[in-house]
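Q: My labmate handed me this sequence with no annotations at all. I'd like to see what the chain might look like in three dimensions before we decide whether it's worth expressing. Could you predict it?
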Amino acid sequence: MVRSVEVSRTLVKSPPELWEELQGDCLSEAIGEVTVQPTKPEEELAWRADGARGWARISPSNWGTKVVLTAEVEEQVAEVGLWERMRGMRPPPAKHADIEQRLEGLLDTLGSAHKKPYSAE
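A: Here is what I predict for the chain of 121 residues:
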């Protein structure tokens, strides 16, 4: 069984700046260890993690860049039999149960300023 999640936001950053960040470690920091593969240069990339996969798409928008993050999570089917359930045993929790919150957090991180403003010393 596969569960799909999609989050999007328009960020006040340029497409090249966001593209650079998405190809960096920000996906791994948000989701866990991922492999990133560009599918359309400077527009879309695919990522894969243990038990999940997804896409990041960016496109120019009126006042910034629209970022759409999609994830497909493989949900584990309970492997606990009747006897184990009667004894109160439960299947392990899903690996990416909080994927939507993680993707929202990634959008927050991408939308925040990372560069320090210029200061004259």
